[in-house]
Amino acid sequence: MLVALGVLALAGCATKPTPPARPQPPVAEEAPPAPREFRGIWVATVNNIDWPSKKGLPAAQQRAEIAAILDRAKALNLNAVVFQVRPAADALYKSELEPWSEYLTGTQGKSPGYDPLAVWVEEAHRRGLELHAWFNPYRARHGEAKSPLAKSHIAKTHPRAVKKYGELLWMDPGEPFAAERTLAVIRDVVRRYDIDGVHIDDYFYPYPITKPLPPKAPKDAKPDEIDFPDDPAWQAYRKAGGKLARVDWRRQNVDQLVEKIHAAVHAEKPWVQFGISPFGLGRPDRRPAGIKGFSQYDKLYADVELWLERGWLDYFVPQLYWPLASKEQSFPVLLDTWLAQNRAGRHVYAGLFTSAISDEKKWSPADITQQIALTRARPGAGGHVHFSAVALMDNRKGIVEKLAPLYAVPALVPASPWLGTKAPAAPVLALAAANQVRITATPDATLFAIWTRRGAQWSFAVQPARRTTLALAPGVDAVVVSAVNRLGNEGPRASFVPPAAPKK
């Protein structure tokens, strides 16, 4: 027996061991599912909140600020930017309908010398980010605006459609021309720009303002609200045979605009999404016990529950702008309430007040990171949007470093099957050069979902489909790629095994 073992040992020394077989090409399904989450950021232009940082900057500096915001979004693995293009019946793009915004040059109607929206769209898409155009449907002039109104402003050309309310100018939702203008503006942008979404916020009828209290008013006296001055439109409605009560008529005016925007956007381009970001508290008669606060249903005449029920939107972002310690505006309770209202099965994303991080407001990064965790714990919630970009650009209280682990892996936006389910074909993968893979896809591809494997470990990345090569890091032994279209639909996966590195 010992002799036999010795012979075997000598034989083992005399022959080289058989090298392990090279792994076979991986099956595409071996790679894990693509992560899905809407990770957005609002970029507000009104009063130069986020961009441009101040009025009158040279075009080159404005462009540099665009790049900086988008680079920060990309570095954090966000995937969508909601850019305010119409803060007050004005335009941050070249328009034949409304004047240039004063927030660009300091003078309403004055061209900045380039088309900002075109730059935002191009630069966002170059980084693989969605660009949603954010419109204010009714505000005609902000109370802190400084520039004289341009001759082409709606308050000059159609004064009947605009009412003064406190320090604001407001397009009257009861005046047919106001709705017609807003629809025309949105159609124009959808038609001419390659945007991914149309977005409106919480400004429908204006937030109410109050009359000053008399000097000798009791300490517990509450000031009376000033009613919105829409009497001419109301009287015209009544004379035409309208039967609704005034509050219901106001809500109907807003309902009709929301329904028409939804239809108009999809009539122009079926893949462009329509999103609404209302105030975070719903109708008082549908709130759970313990939830208190402002009623947008009664004061802004916004019946957002109806819009959700009818499916007049593609995504819904309630502004849940309260810290976790708030009991009467509990973040998880409100989020659950809105999810329960989502009977049409649209996307629901949480609006986060990231800009509130400060010592004065006693918000901390933990408020935001914990709210993200709460959102992720709810299967019906598909993501979140940060208000606003300035908080991330200033890195308030280190919020960027706190968010980085939560966004360590990129994510695709959720798909919208009610808008279409057709997906791109599988891409074709081939070796382009040493450590480079060429990806060839059909024209409907906008993004590539990419998995690379080292041993048993998969890594995930996303890149715009306009980039058709993939650099391979050392040690990658398998690649899987799928194409994704404008609606977030992922096509079949293709796989590729890089050639073995030559032995040294």
Please characterize this protein's 3D structure.
This protein has 504 residues and is α/β, with parallel strands linked by helices. The chain folds into two domains: 38-211 and 225-416, Glycosidases (TIM Barrel, Alpha-Beta Barrel); 421-496, Sandwich (Immunoglobulin-like), CATH 2.60.40.10. 28% of the residues lie in helices and 19% in strands. The chain has 14 helices and 18 strands. An eight-stranded parallel barrel has the order 1-2-3-7-8-9-10-11, surrounded by five helices. A four-stranded antiparallel β-sheet has the order 15-14-17-18, with no helix packed on it. Strand 1 (38-43), helix 2 and strand 2 (80-86) form a beta-alpha-beta unit. The model is unreliable at 1-24 (pLDDT under 50).
For the largest sheet, list the strands in their spatial order.
1-2-3-7-8-9-10-11
Report the portion of residues in β strands: 15-25%
Q: Give the name of the CATH architecture of the largest domain.
A: Alpha-Beta Barrel
| Backbone structural class | alpha/beta
